[in-house]
Amino acid sequence: MAFEIPKYRHPDFMQEKFLNAPNVLWEEAPMDGVAPEHYHSTSMYPEYFKINGKWVLAEESRMDSSVILCEDGHLEVVENRNLKKGDKVILGRSEHCEEGIYIHVNGFVDEKMKIKDQFVFRQGRSRETSYARDYDKLFELLRYEKEHGNIVWVMGPAFTFDYDARRAMQLLIENGYAHGLMGGNALATHDLEAAYFNTALGQDIYTQECMENGHYNHLDVLNKVRRCGSIPKFIDEYKIDNGIVYGCVNNNVPFVFTGSIRDDGPMPEVIGNAYEGQDAMRNLVRKSTTVICLATMLHTIATGNMTPCFRVMEDGEIRPLYLYTVDADEFVVNKLLDRGSLAATTMVTNVQDFITIVAKGLGLM
Amino acid sequence: MAFEIPKYRHPDFMQEKFLNAPNVLWEEAPMDGVAPEHYHSTSMYPEYFKINGKWVLAEESRMDSSVILCEDGHLEVVENRNLKKGDKVILGRSEHCEEGIYIHVNGFVDEKMKIKDQFVFRQGRSRETSYARDYDKLFELLRYEKEHGNIVWVMGPAFTFDYDARRAMQLLIENGYAHGLMGGNALATHDLEAAYFNTALGQDIYTQECMENGHYNHLDVLNKVRRCGSIPKFIDEYKIDNGIVYGCVNNNVPFVFTGSIRDDGPMPEVIGNAYEGQDAMRNLVRKSTTVICLATMLHTIATGNMTPCFRVMEDGEIRPLYLYTVDADEFVVNKLLDRGSLAATTMVTNVQDFITIVAKGLGLM
Amino acid sequence: MAFEIPKYRHPDFMQEKFLNAPNVLWEEAPMDGVAPEHYHSTSMYPEYFKINGKWVLAEESRMDSSVILCEDGHLEVVENRNLKKGDKVILGRSEHCEEGIYIHVNGFVDEKMKIKDQFVFRQGRSRETSYARDYDKLFELLRYEKEHGNIVWVMGPAFTFDYDARRAMQLLIENGYAHGLMGGNALATHDLEAAYFNTALGQDIYTQECMENGHYNHLDVLNKVRRCGSIPKFIDEYKIDNGIVYGCVNNNVPFVFTGSIRDDGPMPEVIGNAYEGQDAMRNLVRKSTTVICLATMLHTIATGNMTPCFRVMEDGEIRPLYLYTVDADEFVVNKLLDRGSLAATTMVTNVQDFITIVAKGLGLM
Amino acid sequence: MAFEIPKYRHPDFMQEKFLNAPNVLWEEAPMDGVAPEHYHSTSMYPEYFKINGKWVLAEESRMDSSVILCEDGHLEVVENRNLKKGDKVILGRSEHCEEGIYIHVNGFVDEKMKIKDQFVFRQGRSRETSYARDYDKLFELLRYEKEHGNIVWVMGPAFTFDYDARRAMQLLIENGYAHGLMGGNALATHDLEAAYFNTALGQDIYTQECMENGHYNHLDVLNKVRRCGSIPKFIDEYKIDNGIVYGCVNNNVPFVFTGSIRDDGPMPEVIGNAYEGQDAMRNLVRKSTTVICLATMLHTIATGNMTPCFRVMEDGEIRPLYLYTVDADEFVVNKLLDRGSLAATTMVTNVQDFITIVAKGLGLM
Q1: Is the peptide bond before A266 cis (omega within 30 degrees of 0)?
Q2: How distant is the Cα of D325 from the closest Cα of chain C, in angstroms?
Q3: Are B227 and C272 within 8 A, CB to CB?
Q4: Could you give the dihedral angle defined by the CA atoms of residues C241, C246, C252 and C257, in that order, rounded to the nearest 10 degrees?
Q5: Listing from the earlier edge strand, what are the strands of the sheet with D54-57?
Q6: Interchain CB contacts (distance < 8 Å): A and D
Q7: What is the pLDDT of residue D235?
Q8: Which of A325, A346, B120, C50 could potentially form a cystine with C100 if both were Cys, beta carbons 3.0 to 4.6 Å apart?
């Protein structure tokens, strides 16, 4: 069964509510980083704004941001902290054309899939949900995206603690299933610790044996990379030949590592400022068509906030942007659950097992 | 790398402490189901008792039970509730020969494996532990046990909610990797619901779609099986041809289903009395050499309590009894952690993924 | 602010759909413990059945059971396993009068409380929910129920591991806030271990110090109670003067302890057969107006299944039956979430803290 | 029972191993932010270094950092990223004087408290641990610290979601139980949202009702504070009179808010750069004698890494630095468990309940 991208159903702008709607209002930002009163704030969904009688889509959207009307008439979605004094900020907080704003929640919803029976036992997704079809669909999706899309992976450090998971991820990268990778300083650190010492926090990633003085390992790796001045130079100088970071460097897969207050080090490439880090992350997400978040609450929520449920392709086609969240803890995955059902898939499992199943499902292991 | 059973190192009974130890004392049980004061209670480990100057092993042991000296001189490990008035119950609560009792904690411990470095980061096992080697060892172990051992599976109902997991388990059963199976009424109920309706609690186990009035499905299956009078008759009458219970019935794999206060139904085969249920479970466990508990706190702890860390084979050889606990929740697996390290392996993951990885690792999927 | 029982709004039987509905059908149970095809199965809600043109409420309901039409015209809700051959079992699986059955979902719903805004962040209840008002309402409710209702407590064994929690519960019992108590063998065992040894599993319940050979403590208590023949005799003989079980015995609060396959012992009062246990539990629940389940998945779900969201008082008044579930784990509390919003309150916290806050809120500590 | 600070037992430097130990070696940092090979890295414990035949304590320590020998002979503990080229960095990775380094693990350990019995059931701390004595000791400790110490609170945003918890924390601040407070942008944001709108993420923090368009609330507060230019100006201009942040501002309790990639806003006071944030946090921690971390994995681990288990007071006295971690999730608290037992206390509960119990225990509510 080959994968087929769901068709986007544009709003029917000939309906009364669209025709009768007023033009949307705007007001200038009163100072840098501050929106005017009654600013409109974006959602995950496609949002249309009536400007000079025409409904215009804000194309590169994200959640909780302002919409700026640019000189050339196109709309830009900008985090409030990035507003400049004088930016024309769209106003309005209604969603059904009342103020010239329309949020298109059902652009990809298949009518057939709606559930009729109201007396349902299991609504949320938990460790007890059946994920068999989700896996099968993901295999298809990844094969499709490898050719036609852009897959961004987001992951926590624990991912590198397991020999199989680390190898599976490297194989996915080497076989064209990764177009971008995001994580924190610890991901880079422990992956390179594994590459250099074969340990994670001093424990062998295969045999689980603890090396003597192994708690020095990640600090030593950090120190060596900092001395080298960059991750690629460390990889070159120390002849690193395996792992996730190595895979990215070797295959020109762009990565964004952002810092946090938990960090040792950090690695030279890590972006220490959280808001510059957000900007760099969003730049990766802007190109993505599938985003897969693995075992990191911090990076998953950060990514989820900046990932809309749609992508406007270069040819103008609108398609879903698929977001997956995989975590061992229901609490984490449920934090991102309130999104359009077609666009977000949450799975409760150990990400080590998840990634080896994915690599096997794609015939890589 | 072929699997090798660790050698058992018998205690060196020529050591002073064994030679100088007194004979163990006993006293008659004062009434049915009641032990005498200062009774000895068993552990998971091999325990030796000095009787008439000879050290005798209690062969079929379990935790928290009394040891009875039988007429023929052999020792039986009996739950206190099953004591009969007049049974000769062993007394003593020391473990190093002081009262003629020796608990042999290190029978299988490999000296090489002991960890030297005390400054260790990660001691427990969590979602962040590397399980790569555990999987590889399990594949080897299961291949060995298929030929030479006895594998008992213990599982919670959620196991049947996933299409892949259910199929993987059926394949394991059909290919000789199951010599016994234990669970509750819900396991049997939802597995047969899946076989008959393709749903679990009314939700399709592959597509996740909710059937109209699907909350009747498990009740209807229960009602039909009860009308048939037995699970095998239901399988026959309704031409069931898939699933875990079907696999057991079709391959003569004995199962024990025990009841709980959560049950609907129950199925005719379910043992309603908890203590008769324990007895039936222990009879399966007595033959087992590997026990794998999946996603059920109740049955896992019940099984763990009655599973020693060793098995005396028919030829007198003593070998480890391997116990695995797999659950999505650290809290559950850690409840069983305090056992001999060689004998208990805990893994934190979704059991659906676990079982498909096992089936794939054995070449069955 | 004094507590006020919400008024029950009876269905308006003069509406067309009630007037035009057919009488409900029934069929005899074909054999003991088996319902006829197309039997109706109950929910948590008040359910009305049209019999000889009159709508009759099934008064003492519970979930997942059959409805029997008795000789005298009243309706009894009976678990399928308790059906007798020839019982007149109501048929039909629609809920809006189509087959003479009406499920009254909104009997207690306050129109004012309905939420208008659909764009809501936090829908479920988690560790991040505000429970301040829930506590305040619970204090009021308990004060009301002490005089006018019937409070049943359901609890797991961990409850007895903490000095403060155990004392708080004893105070609630001694001050009239408990009309029934349910739990497992372990609750009774560890509470009496705490009373006799001041330990839980050998660990001091206040200082956390581990007693030497403390793992014998609960076994010794079990053995002593079994020798005594009953819990009250043990309390008397060993001069027990504190704890939860002591509080019940001393204040004539009925308790039901049901067995499970995890049990040691068991205590003489424990009901070993799960289905007899269910019957005994339901008999306590039949009188209850508030049920509070604390830190036990097994007993909470069992209780939840047999607890409707309403109670018909002796004077014919219909009032809500309040069900609380308190557990440290979202997974557990969410299992019971799909109930009428007025009737079920879930709180995510450590039950030790919960109960001391309740005792303090009622002025008992 | 009044609280008594445990006495510190200095190492006995007259022992052979100290007398025979060589002087510790050092080497200059080869470049800014890079340590020399074989650098020594610190632990939580007091560490002594033999310099010119004298054993010198590194007074203000933290984990995973280098030790610099300063011109004046005193030792400074410096994160590697803060090293300057030419800093004299101590070398050596042994702990028992072999290289002139001694790690004093048992400075505060009471011999009486050591546990004798090895066969212990419950070793870790979980929702099933008895916390009664921990609470009582904490009440005493806080009363002591109010007069003689320095209490720093670290907290996640969920803390502000509950009316009672927020009030309890405000009372603790107003009554002298807080000498510093640390958290993220979200803590400040949602606390001020609660102060201004009485909501958290749009949901009333007492009634749990969702305000229409309530998802704008936190964004509006952020926007207003950013327009005001600082939190104190916002509090002044909008007449804020309640909450945690208000309490700090009004009582001159210093706070450190550090940014993360999840942030909206941020608030003007938030430190966006993670490593500058760490430095600011450590400056608060340097003065602390008790640190209490509540419901935040990120900030808890960050704080834990920079908090040693001892504090050298101005008069030279060495006392324990008490660290508490409170979280609903065992996984989080166990991440910090591997510390000296006297110094770290972990509690598994909902922090809302924790803080109201603390405020009540101190007589504030």
Answers
A1: yes
A2: 15
A3: no
A4: -170
A5: D54-57, D47-51, D101-103
A6: 118
A7: 98
A8: C50
Please return the burial class of B70, using the count of CB atoms within 10 Å of its CB with bins 0-12, 13-18 and 19+.
exposed
| Token pair listed for C345 | 């309150």
A–C: how many Cβ contacts below 8 A? 22
Say what the ipTM of the complex is.
Answer: 0.94
- Are residues B264 and C329, on separate chains, in Cβ contact within 8 Å? no
Residues 6+ apart with CB under 8 A from B331: C329, D126, D127, D330
Place of tokens 């000889």: C52
Q: Per-residue pLDDT for A318 more than 60?
A: yes
- Find the CB nearest C302 among B81, B258, B261: B261
Which residues are bridge partners to B200 per DSSP?
A: B203
Q: Which residues of D touch C165 (CB under 8 A)?
A: 132
CA nearest neighbour of D221 among D231, D206, D236: D231
Asked if D124's CB is within 8 angstroms of B331's CB, the reply is: no
Amino acid at the residue C29: A
Confidence label for A109 from pLDDT (cuts 50, 70 and 90): confident
What is the mean pLDDT of the segment spanning A246-257? 98
Is there a cis peptide before residue B266, judged by omega within 30 degrees of 0? yes
pLDDT digits (tens, 9 = 90+) for C118-168: 333 335 678 888 899 999 999 999 999 999 999 999 999 988 999 999 999
> With a threshold of 0.80, does the pTM exceed it?
yes
pLDDT tens per residue, range D11-21:
999 999 999 99
Q: How far apart are CA C270 and CA C265, in angstroms?
A: 9
CA gap B129, A206 in Å, rounded:
10
Higher pLDDT, C286 or B335: C286
Alpha helices in chain D (DSSP H): 16-20, 132-148, 163-174, 185-197, 217-228, 231-237, 244-250, 274-287, 297-305, 330-334, 351-361
Partner residue facing D334 (CB), from B119, B124, B338: B124
Within a 13 Å sphere around the CA of B188, how many CA atoms are in the beta-carbon half?
30
B39, B40, B41, B47: CA torsion to nearest 10: -160
Angle between helices C351-361 and C163-174 (to 10 degrees): 40
Q: State the Cα–Cα distance between residues C166 and C182, nearest whole angstrom.
A: 15
Residue D243 is encoded by which pair of tokens? 């909450």
Distance from CA of B357 to the nearest CA of A (A): 7
Verify whether the Cβ–Cβ distance C261 to B273 is below 8 Å. no
Cβ C132–D165 below 8 Å, yes or no?
Answer: yes
Q: Which residues of D touch C132 (CB under 8 A)?
A: 162-165, 205-206, 352
Q: Which of D95, D119, D126 sits opposite B331 (nearest CB)?
A: D126
**Cβ separation C261–B264 shorter than 8 A:** no
Flag if D264 and A64 touch (Cβ within 8 Å): yes
Contacts of A43 in chain C (CB under 8 A): 119
| Beta carbons of C289 and C322 less than 8 angstroms apart | yes
CA–CA gap between residue C130 and residue C135 (Å, rounded):
10
pLDDT at C164: 96
Q: What are the b/e assignments for A142-172, b being 16+ CB within 10 Å?
A: bbbbbeebbbbbbbbbbbbbbbbbbbbbbbb
Inter-chain residue contact A350 with B349, CB threshold 8 Å: yes
> Which residues of D are less than 8 Å from B125 in CB distance?
none
Residue B51, strand partner residues = B54
Question: Which helix H or strand E contains C114, and what residues bound it?
Answer: none
